[in-house]
Amino acid sequence: MEKQGVSGPKPRFLLGNIMDMASLVEKSTSQDMDTISHNVVGRLLPHFVVWSKLYGKRFIYWNGIEPRMCLTETELIKELLSKYNSISGKSWLQQQGSKHFIGKGLLMANSDDWYHQRRIIAPAFMGDKLKSYAGYMVECTKQMLQSLESAVKEGQTEFEIGEHMTRLTSDIISRTEFDRNYEKGKQIFHLLTLLQQLCAKASKNLCFPGSRCSLSNGLFCSDRVTSVQHYPSQIENNFLILKWIILVEATDPTVNPPMGVSCTAFNSLLSMVINESLRLYPPATVLPRMAFDDIRLGDLHIPKGLSIWIPVLAIHHSEEIWGKDVNEFNPDRFASKSFAPGRHFIPFAAGPRNCIGQSFALMEAKIILAMLISKFSFTISDNYRHAPVIVLTIKPKYGVQICLKSLNP
User: Fold this and answer.
1) Which domain range does residue 21 map to?
2) CA-CA distance, 116 to 302, in Å (whole number)?
3) I need a surface site. Which of 193, 293, 296, 337 has the fewest CB within 10 A?
4) Binding residues
């Protein structure tokens, strides 16, 4: 890659640049942010900020024994994600590093295994099936709002909204996918987490040749494990999305109850608010893709075995793309079509490997936000501490504390 003008920090033997990254992140996240600022790239991806200044937009670093090239050129990213899905995917190192957290399901699968799993899960998030979930989402949200209203009437004003969003999104998934309420559903998700851990441990054990290919022992079980492994990560993504949406809306109220506003206009405003929140705090902060064969991206030759590291968070906070107010919450930027979904705006990735549950997540967020603002006004609590951290995805380290005031006292 040096012949193509791509360089980077010098790696250590076996460790690569892991220690450098860990040191930078530890330093940048050691304290809370002074104000509720959305300028979080330097805090969450400090190695990107440092190395891009030293080596340019394209640079190579080593994640242990795996070389990764940072790519921020949106045209090339779109080409990679849409055109080269069949010869790129998750590396062995990525799979090993995440199997104890999210198993070996759709997110980490490649090639035929990925197609097989996607085909199993896809029907639950498509067409009429997806539309049928709206009633469940409304009913579950009503129950949560009733609980909040009761608490407000009893004098409680401050809430850690994440606790309520976790329960709500778990309840919605339980009802839509397993036809169970939250109390029964949480037992299912506990067992699924345990199943993932047991599967990860079992993968280390030796087996007789061919035993994993036994139709009677493997395929039947594999299909069902695949179809449910997805849901715990789906729940976590959904409630984190809602946390950040509520945070930015509580900090800078934009949406008001739809009085005298057409349903179409209100729906558009909700979409803009949700998209802007996803721009500032995307569920996927980075997208790694390893080249399983040689790939040509514009003037760039990607050799087989090189991983491409796409810093979604940095792209979403690029002043070149979004303007000087890039770190401000401004839903109006989504009123125009100046941005390009799948290129400039990729909160759920793009191309064939985009997030299979994104339509579900967006519909859920829109319903919950619309119903919440119809019942309450809310502001950020003085007790809120702004300290975003990355643990697989972006999380508020100390939760999101908001103050609720009923609109119907």
Assistant:
1) 2-406
2) 27
3) 337
4) 355
Adjacent-strand bridge partners of 53: none
Binding residues for heme: 355
SS3 of 396, please?
strand
Exposed / middle / buried, residue 363 (Cβ in 10 Å: 0-12, 13-18, 19+): middle
Integer Cα distance of 170 and 159 in angstroms: 18
Q: Per the structure, how many domains does the chain have?
A: 1
Here the tokens at position 363 are 């519909």
Q: How do residues 48-79 score in pLDDT, each as one tens digit?
A: 999 999 999 999 999 999 999 999 999 999 99
Going from the C-alpha of 203 to that of each of 94, 99, 197, 207, the distances in angstroms are 16, 10, 10, 9
State the amino acid at position 382 in one-letter form: D
Please count the residues of the chain. 409
Residue 358 identity: Q
Residues 6+ apart with CB under 8 A from 260: none
How many Cβ atoms are within 10 Å of 360's Cβ, its own excluded? 23
- pTM for the model stands at 0.86
- Compute the distance between CA of residue 91 and CA of residue 40 in angstroms, rounded to an integer: 27
Q: 3-state SS string over 61-73?
A: EEECCEEEEECCC
CATH code: domain of residue 47: 1.10.630.10
Which of 14, 94, 99 lies closest to 62 in space, CA to CA?
14
Strand duo 66-70 + 307-310: pairing: parallel
pLDDT tens by residue, 292-338: 999 999 999 999 999 999 999 999 999 999 999 999 999 999 987 66
Q: Which residues contact 65 (CB under 8 A, 6 or more apart)?
A: 14, 16, 93
Cα 192 from chain centre: 20
Pairwise CA distance, residues 73 & 49, whole Å: 15
CA 155-160-165 angle, 5° bins: 115
Tell me the C-alpha distance between 282 and 390, whole Å. 11
The residue written with tokens 């006004």 in the block is: 377
Looking at 259-319, which runs of residues are DSSP E strands? 287-291, 295-297, 300-302, 307-310
State which H helix or E strand residue 126 sits in. none
